[in-house]
Design a protein that fits this description.
Layout (H helix, E strand, L loop, with lengths): L6 E7 L4 H9 L4 H9 L1 E6 L6 H10 L3 H4 L5 E3 L6 E3 L9 H7 L4 E7 L8 E6 L12 H9 L15 H26 L3 E6 L1 H13 L8 H22 L5 E6 L3 E4 L2 E4 H7 L12 H13 L3 H13 L4 H11 L4 H4 L10 E2 L6 E4 L8 H16 L6 E4 L1 H4 L11 E5 L4 E4 L8 E2 L10 E4 L1 E8 L5 E2 L4 E2 L3 H8 L14 H4 L5
Parallel strand pairs: 1-7, 1-8, 2-19, 2-20, 5-6, 5-7, 10-15
Antiparallel strand pairs: 2-18, 3-4, 8-18, 9-17, 10-16, 11-12, 12-14, 13-14
Helix pairs in contact: 7-9
Length: 502
């Protein structure tokens, strides 16, 4: 098939899901997105696993899965046990906009999660992983701030209930600013490909999913105002991009979906119970065990329940507050507990990707033969776990790539992702079915995100069959008349978007 040559705008709504957007569109809150859906094409967009921001957006950018990239979460092992670092980059893989740039096509990237911009035929404004990441060109941030008349906003801070109003207001300002920045950069650079990411959507859903999932007339005004701002910023970017002329196409996509967080599974606690992870004698704080039981019991009584969340809120955010919390309750994070783990006896652990179980290479008795036996044994036990539906995956069977040196031995998914996987030792039992009211966040990721496409020649149509996030890059290259590199594992869904092309 020979596709027509298009210009492409890609709007990324981090964590976007039709479960939320459909009722908001029906209520008239999102006129731009609703119009795009009515005139264009929509389908669920399946993420990679684990469906986390970094591996998902990096897979989108490169058209390669986590097994090829060797990226499975926000962090990667770095040094000894209990040590990790934020993933540094998707390189040496190449983003599809690099290929476009080399062919002389002008490109722009705004707010993509990377530590630093790099040379392109156009511009690159990174976001998320650093407070003030270098842009390309180097002067771009200062000139953009001059045009905006304000500082370029960084990632949202940690959420605190007592600062709710200011936090949501900052999230709203962030998406509004992104729309203005997209217009300024369109006018200045006139890109033929532009990517704009709205990270705030995922952050807001994590904290306020239970409120957003209510009927429209019960959602608080500040949350509705936030989503109207998202819609308005998307419209502003779309209008500025289309105003540059020529056949253009707009894709609205997400890296993964979102849904309610109903329970928590503490993988390292389960591994300790099953004697795969060995804590040294006295290595675990008795205060943490006692306090966790008291808190869970108190959370079931109305008067005490109402006091717990404000108390937890006071201990959240800022190094000093968190130090006080650790003094009161004892350490519980995996990083802190790593020094109390007997690494010569431990067989398996979960760190630094919470969906993963890793075999302990520091155990001298763990031969390749024994490792294979342990993996099979853990899989069998987890799949029979009586308190939840646990799916267990071998990374070698779900990824096409072979860059699996730092991959977990097994990947887990619990209760279709309604149960969140955790690596800490905060509670004495592996499964926390009653999620306490003092927990932060009511939302957690799901596999299916969104695809909305509109523009020249796109028919009004809907597919209930999910497409793949890995197919987006091949589709854009196809639509711009650029041959696909052999490194990409996805395929173009162009026939959905330009069916008349022959």
């Amino acid at each position: 098939m020979t596709a027509p040559s298009h210009r492409f705008l890609v709007l990324g709504l981090d964590g976007g899901t039709f479960d939320l957007l459909d009722p908001l569109m029906e209520a008239g809150e999102l006129p731009f997105l609703r119009g795009l859906v009515q005139r264009g094409f929509r389908a669920p967009l399946t993420s990679v696993y684990p469906p986390k921001t970094i591996p998902a957006w990096y897979s989108f950018a490169t058209g390669q899965d986590p097994g090829t990239l060797g990226i499975f979460g926000f962090t990667e092992p770095d040094g000894g046990p209990g040590k990790s670092r934020i993933v540094q980059t998707f390189r040496p893989a190449e983003a599809f906009w690099d290929l476009l740039s080399r062919r002389g096509i002008r490109v722009g990237v705004l707010n993509f999660p990377l530590r630093s911009g790099y040379p392109l035929n156009g511009f690159f404004v990174p976001g998320m992983l650093s407070e003030h990441p270098p842009t390309y060109p180097a002067h771009l941030q200062s000139s953009l701030e001059t045009e905006l008349g304000e500082p370029y906003l960084a990632e949202l801070p940690a959420y605190r209930e007592s600062e709710r109003a200011d936090w949501i207001a900052q999230a709203t300002r962030g998406v509004e600013q992104r729309g203005r920045a997209a217009k300024i950069l369109c006018d200045q650079y006139r890109p033929d490909f532009l990517f704009v990411l709205f990270r705030e959507t995922d952050r807001v859903q994590h904290q306020h999913w239970s409120e957003l999932a209510r009927p429209h007339d019960e959602i608080q005004a500040d949350l509705l105002a936030f989503w109207r701002a998202v819609d308005g910023a998307c419209a502003q970017a779309d209008h500025a991009f289309r105003a540059l002329g020529g056949p253009s196409m707009t894709l609205v996509i997400s890296d993964h979906g979102h849904g309610a967080a109903c329970a928590d599974f503490f993988t390292n606690r389960w591994l300790a119970e099953e004697n795969y992870l060995a804590l040294r004698q006295g290595g675990e704080s008795w205060r943490r065990r006692v306090l966790s039981r008291v808190l869970l019991a108190s959370d079931r009584f109305g008067p005490l329940r109402r006091l717990l969340k404000p108390a937890a809120d006071r201990l959240r955010g800022g190094a000093r507050r968190e130090r006080v919390g650790r003094l009161l309750a004892g350490e519980s994070s995996f990083e802190a507990m790593a020094e109390h783990i007997d690494w010569r006896k431990t067989i398996a652990f979960s760190y630094p990707v919470p969906e993963g179980i890793y075999l302990n290479r520091y155990n001298p008795d763990l031969t390749p033969e024994r490792s294979a036996e342990i993996v099979a044994e853990i899989r069998q036990k987890l799949e029979r776990y009586p308190e939840g539906k646990i799916e267990v995956f071998d990374p070698r069977t779900i990824y096409r790539g072979t860059n699996l040196d730092q991959a977990p031995a097994l990947l887990l998914r619990v209760d279709d992702m309604a149960t969140e996987l955790r690596m800490d030792f905060s509670y004495s039992k592996p499964m926390l079915r009653h999620r306490p009211g003092y927990f932060y966040g009511s939302g957690v990721h799901r596999m299916n995100g969104i695809l909305i496409a509109g523009g020249a020649g796109v028919p009004g149509a809907r597919s209930d069959e999910p497409l793949s996030l890995l197919d987006v890059a091949p589709t854009i290259l196809d639509g711009m008349g650029v041959p696909l590199p052999p490194t990409m594992t996805g395929r173009s869904f162009g026939p959905h978007l330009w069916p008349s092309a022959g």
